[in-house]
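Write out the 3D structure for:
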Amino acid sequence: HGVDKFTLETFRGSHCILDTNILMFIALESRYKDAFVAIEKVFSDLDITCQILKITQKEYENKIEYQRNITLHNLEKYGYDIMSLANDDFTRAALAMHCDDEQDFERFFDVSLSIPTYLHDRVPINILDDNMGMLEAIEEASYDDNLKNELSESFKRVAKREKSKSALCHDAGMIGGVTFLRKDDATKEKKYFILSEEISVNQYSKSH
């Protein structure tokens, strides 16, 4: 609804680069699960593939590990009764899987560390091989102060807070990687777009 058939057809056969937040929503089978089921059907019908950059894989793993440390610390400090009242996506997902002690939570985070293999259950998620040109483009973009400032200002306008430097480096690098793919002789005939929940990434995509 709200997207005409012609617009959808422009995406046929394209490649979708997933951002870290999308991977986390999929892994945690979050409240967006129904949306991913619907998106996957569209992607399958239009032969759209799903891929991630290795910098996104790294950021995903770092975020899971960070959340593991916080959750297990809180579990040890406050006990399960208080933890069961937490409303963050990680704790709710763990509780939905009947985690009720430290070992259960450890296993939950061990499983969560693995990148989801499918958008839902039909369209696979593949990790893009880094060639030297793309690696250089990602690194160059991650050091691009103008790009990072633009992303930062866009984020601040809506979120009313600063975005972390590491997140800005990732987002700039991801944009740099996708820009490279769109221009490189080996891939420029293909269509690439980023799927993200991130304010600044989406705003950048609209204006460039």
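The beta strands are 15-18, 49-52, 125-127, 192-195.
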